[in-house]
Structure formats: C-alpha cells, structure tokens
Amino acid sequence: MIIMKYFNKTLIAVSVALVSTQSMAAGFQLNSQSATGIGRAFAGDAVIADNASVLSRNPAAMALFDEKQLSMGLTYADVEVEVKDVAMGDVHFGSVPDAAEAKIIPNFYYVSPVNDKFAYGVAMFSNFGTGTDTTELSNNIIGGVIPAPIDLLGKTEVTTINFNLSASYRINDNFSVGAGVDVIYGEGTLTRGGATPSLSDPQHTELVDVDADGVAFGGIVGAVYEFNENHRIGASYRFSPDFKASGDISMTDPQAGPIMFDEINIPIPDIFQVAGFHQLTEKFALHYTAQLTTWGDFHEISVTDGTIGGAPVAPEASLKTYAWDDSWLFSVGGTYTLNDSWTLRAGYMFDQGVVGEISSISIPDSDRQWYTAGATYNLSKHTSLDFGIAFVRGEETDLVEYSAIYGANPTPINATTLSNATYYSMQYNYKF
After folding, report:
1. How many domains does the chain have?
2. 208 vs 13, 27, 253, 315, CA distance in Å?
3. Is 80 exposed, middle or buried (0-12, 13-18, 19+ CB in 10 A)?
4. pLDDT tens digits, residue range 133-171?
5. 38: part of which helix (H) or strand (E)?
6. What is the domain range of residue 85?
7. What start and end residues bound the annotated signal peptide (predicted)?
8. Which residues contact 156 (CB under 8 A, 6 or more apart)?
9. What 8-state DSSP symbol labels residue 22?
10. What does pTM read for this prediction?
11. The domain that contains 415 carries what CATH number?
C-alpha cells in the first residue's frame, strides 16, 4: 500500500524521469509523407519518382525527372489508442478508450531539373510525431487513500517538421547521386499531475508542465542505379541530429521548491532505406522497400541549464537511459495502369515496434501491419490528383511501467494498450 511519508521525497525523482516521456513520443515514426506513398505502403518510394514527393525519401531520384514538378497534399491521421486496465496489483484505476486525437499532416515538394545532369528541389514534410492523453485517469483516488500513478498519466505531444533543400547529379546513364540539408523544427508539450490524498479534500499536484521547441540540422545522401528504363534500385541515408529543445520546463517539489531546466537534449535516429522498382509489363509494376531506423541510438535524454529554487545546478544532467531497439520495416506494393486517366496501387507493410525493455503507458507501441490502397486520376496532361488510404493495425500489448509516487522503491503499474490508425491522404501534382 501507499507509504505517504515517501511521497514528497520522491517528487524530484518523478519529475526528472518524466521529462524523458516527452522525448519518447518521438519514438513513433510517421509514414505519411505523400498520398502516393500511403497508397503503396511506401514500397519503392525512394526510387519510383512518379512525382516530386520522392524528395522525402531519396534526393538522387530527382535525376529521373526531365521537367519541373510540384506536389502538395494533406494526410488525415485518425489514430486510435486504447489504454485498458491500469492497475497496481488488485487496485484498478480504470481505462481510457480513446487516448489520442486525429491529426492533419501537410506536405509540399518541388523538383526543378537545371540540365540533363543537375537538378534541385525543396520540400516540407514530417518524419516524427505523436500525441496521447490519459489525463482523465489522473484524478482517481481509490477509497480516498490510493491515488492514481500520476507520474505516468497525462498529456504527451510531439511534432517535428522537416524543411529540406536537395540536389542531384547524374554521373552517367545508369548512376545518379544526391544530397540534401534538413532544417528540423520540433515542439512538444508534456503535463503530468493529478489528485493526491490529504486530510481534507484531495489536493492537485502538478509534477511537470513542459512547453519546449527548437531547431536542429540534419542531412540526407542517396543514390539511384538504373539497369534500364524498366528496372532500377535506390538507397538513401538520413542523418539526424541530437535535437535541443528549449522553453519552459517546470517541475515542482514541495521540499526543494521549483525545479527549472531550459533545454532538453534529444537524440533522433538515423534512417537508412533500400528500394526497388520493376516495370514487369506495360501496365503492371512491382516495387519494395526495406528501411532501418536506428532507435538504438536513442540511449539517453539529458537536460541543461537547470535551477532549483533559483540556484544553479549541474550544467548537464542525465535524465534516463533507454534500451530501445533498432527498427526495421518491410513493404511491397504494386502499381497498375488502368487507362490514360486512372492508375491504381496497393501495398502491404510490416512495421517493427521500437520499444525494447522499457515500455510506456503514454507511448503505446507494438509491431504493426499496414494494408493500403490508392489511385491517381489524371485531370490533364499536366495535372493529377492522388488518393491514398492505409489501415494500420497494432497488437494488444500487456506492459509494466514503474511509478515512483508510492514509496521508496518504484511500484509496478500494469496496463494493456492497443494502437491502431487509419490514414486518409490526398495530393495535387503539377508538371510544368
């Protein structure tokens, strides 16, 4: 049961551990960069180059363009996160049937060939982002004595946007290379707090209130090899930075007073992918992708420029060590040209979860299966519309996460999570 004399004493440890949860939200990698990609489960997206959205995957593929192209679109992500049976032993705190909100994710791409050797492009898209909210459980006090694990419950939201400038160079008829620079803007909010018992009415305790943002720089390199006009392969490697987010990071301890940090240092994983495209008949093409995201690099979160009660603390402190795994995804898709007006596509993806030994109620994760379909409608010689839909299905996962509010030692909290999503995407393309 609860040992209330330890409660105040553990709030510092709880608050420090919680800042890392905001960073863990970036563990959900987005695959929503284009309607065409969604329609074929992003199979072959680093080498197909059927519109300018290839910039999100491989800058070398711009060498396949012989005219300027513009692509821009929106993806509506209807995310379903269920958190069930949050419990401490035989004490049950309840469930949250819908712990996530739907999101609209925009994108923009422009590719311009300069001559038969050189091309450049600009792009805007997102690679990482998530949001969950389990605040409704944080005010549950069982029997008037046992509070919910408020250090594990609350709102977690992270968004990143990539602004990319890339160039490609055709070395010969078969081989092309490309490189680009990413300017990454990220922002996140995190709240943790809730009701705690007192001799009179329950008291609200605000453990953490974070609102931070920042800018970081990364890059991408890629290559394309064309066996002939119907068969080609491509590869790219995206270098991601150690992201630094600054802002208001407020944590409260009744004994030590306000705890403030100005900056969070968050390592973002690199992304490596290989893709192939094969036009097997005049109407049908087969394509595929294998992609590795180095979540094993996500090993530690640290904070800098901290003060306790207005007094400076160590210039840098380690918040938490992680045991996340590198993550693979594999996808295969097909494209069928129905007639001059319509092109149809479909795909399947296996997307491996990233969470290893450390699980989280606020960041549900598991292996996911993608089932996708899409189409292109040619409005004219220069204009087309793309449509894509993806049904993403996760696995029900039983997890254990440890709360620090119940005593001197962390207390195991059990829960069951399930995360599914449906993506709806539309894209406008124009050839100049």
Report:
1. 1
2. 11, 20, 10, 20
3. middle
4. 888 888 888 887 888 888 888 887 778 899 999 999 999
5. helix 35-39
6. 4-431
7. 1-25
8. 21, 22, 24, 25, 130, 131, 132, 133, 188, 189, 190, 362, 363
9. H
10. 0.86
11. 2.40.160.60
